[in-house]
Amino acid sequence: MALLQIAEPGLSAAPHQHRLAVGIDLGTTNSLVATVRSGSAVCLPDAQGRNGLPSVVRYLSDGAVDVGHDALKAQKIDPLNTISSAKRLIGRSLDDIARDQLPYRFGHGDAVVTLATRQGDKTPIEVSAEILRALRQRAEDSLGGELTGAVITVPAYFDDAQRQATKDAARLAGINVLRLLNEPTAAAIAYGLDNRAEGTFAVYDLGGGTFDVSILQLSQGLFEVKATGGNSALGGDDFDHRLFCHLLSQCGLSQLNEQDHQLLLGLARAAKESLTTDESATIQATLSDGRDVSATIRREEFHNLTQHLVAKTLEPIKQALKDAGVGKAGIQGVILVGGATRMPHIRQAVTTFFGQTPLTNLNPDEVVALGAAMQANVLAGNKSADEWLLLDVTPLSLGLETYGGLAEKVIPRNSTLPTARAQEFTTFKDGQTAMTIHVVQGERELVADCRSLAKFTLRGIPPMVAGAARIRVTFQVDADGLLSVSAREQTTGVQAQIEVKPSYGLDDDTITRMLKDSMQHAQDDAQARARAEAAIEAQGLLEAVQAALALDGDLLDEAERQNIDQALADTAQQLAHGDADTIRQAVQALGQATDTFAARRMNRNIQRVLQGKNIEELES
Ligand code: ADP
Ligand code: MG
């Protein structure tokens, strides 16, 4: 496949003019902002010297908004007005999310999720915008000027709606988005440019609540995402929770109130983090009823308690390798991303799985923001883009509905972005003047099993016989992963197009489920497709025979007519209730029953022509 260069047109800077551009890692748990200073990427700390900003927003009673550490601290006392993990909700509908598992009051929005706070209903876009606004403020304070723009990172599996919603959040925060960049790609940029790496790389990202794995190919300054996978309900939080449960059983505690629960969970998290460097950790607390809790845990014990969580990350890696068509041996390097990959048993498991020591010379919490900053520096025109190119992939196939409810794939999954593909379609009915283009996403053969993204209609097709119109449908996915679809009738040039912005999106669980479904149902799907194809043929033949009987029925004697009527009835019966095989048999029988009739009609038509008359004249 041809590789396309991604460069922002019209963005080459005047000499000596340095534009202020930043990279932003908008994380589920923590967010960061970084920039390139004197040629190297650095994170920008807050006034207290902390790089990470907890992705938590609190709406206070005086109308003010707290973002970050203060909001995180207040979560225990003001949970309903303090929103964390907005990234899990962004660009998604109420139907998409497990509402009962989230500690919020939901607002009354129909398709879009809103959270009820004392400052009114807030969408996840508004919540994310608060985080972005805080980071923009931090950057402008520390760089001393207004930002030209930012590169914001998103998970590779984010769909169109989630990407759009992230862009909307940035717009609300007054940030000019230079590009949305996939998180693993950003990590690879940070490593690739520093180490001049070549080959196929795996990016293992274990954050607070999510696990993502990506297979990337780097060569001669070219980045290409080959496959992605993961688990959206697995992260550092699960390790905290396991340690917390262990603590409860060790100390013989059961029923805790919410405050004690939060207290011990927080201590478990701190203990987990200290076990990364220390051989043992001690947890000490006084509960609200005055009881003292004290426990010591050794690193080895913690590792045994959580080994099953570590093992859980290996399955998605195997799948991603398979999707990318590479074996473990084909992986030149493994990049660790996310705070939770600091844990020694994670590093050990990754080392054993790949048979090599992972790359860890960059800080795993910062690597995504650093890579984004490098990309922003290029896009803002401070550095030539010739040095490297950037390529991502589509997580699911994109296609459209064709006659009979079948999904025709136009852009297969894992296609490199940006990409554009065109396919020609035609009309099914005589005189058809409009065609509805139904854009779908998914791996299954039937439209009913795929996700509907958008519908639009191409009108003004001149009336022609079925199959004569040539409608070229072009799918285009840009470097940010956003899809637009256009349709053009080739002989007349009439066109219609749409930019696909679904009202809600897919999370990686849904993507994983859809992929799994497509594999499990491959057999069913093949049968369903075969049936639909046979049905299209049967329907066409039924209509043709009926039209012929109306026109030339007089060519048949009574027995012949009865025979054909019987075959017609059989075909209609199979069309309604039969499977692919029985429909085909009925079609074949109908074909045989009408053989002689067809021959006689041909003779009659030849005679008509020989009489100097045009067939159409006679038919009308
Ligand atoms: P996200 O990408 O979800 O925003 P991060 O990459 O910031 O998340 O990772 C946050 C997770 O990393 C939390 O579970 C946190 O406890 C964990 N973490 C941070 N530092 C350490 C450490 N030193 N040892 C173990 N886990 C850590
Ligand atoms: Mg992250």
Q: Could you characterize the architecture of this molecule?
A:
α13 (about 560-575) runs antiparallel to α14. The protein starts with 20 loop residues before the first strand and ends with a helix. Residues about 1-15 and about 385-390 have low confidence and may be disordered. The strands form seven sheets. Strands 1, 2, 3, 4, 10 and 11 form a six-stranded mixed β-sheet that branches. It has a six-stranded mixed β-sheet with strand order 17-12-13-14-18-21, with helices on both faces. Strands 20-19-23-24 form a four-stranded antiparallel β-sheet, with no helix packed on it. It is about 35% helix and about 25% strand. By secondary structure, the protein is α+β, with helices and mostly antiparallel strands. The protein binds adenosine-5'-diphosphate and magnesium ion. Adenosine-5'-diphosphate (ADP) binds near residues 27, 29, 207, 272 and 276. The site of adenosine-5'-diphosphate has 21 residues, from α5 and α6.
Sheet with most strands = 6 strands, mixed
Shape field? elongated
Average pLDDT level: 84
Bound molecules: adenosine-5'-diphosphate, magnesium ion
Assembly type of the chains comes to single chain
**In DSSP terms, counting alpha (H) and pi (I) runs of 4 or more, how many helices?**
16
- Termini separation comes to 52 Å
Q: Ranges with pLDDT <50 over ≥5 residues?
A: 1-16, 385-389
The total beta strand count reads 27
Helix content: 25-40%
Rg from alpha-carbon coordinates: 31 Å
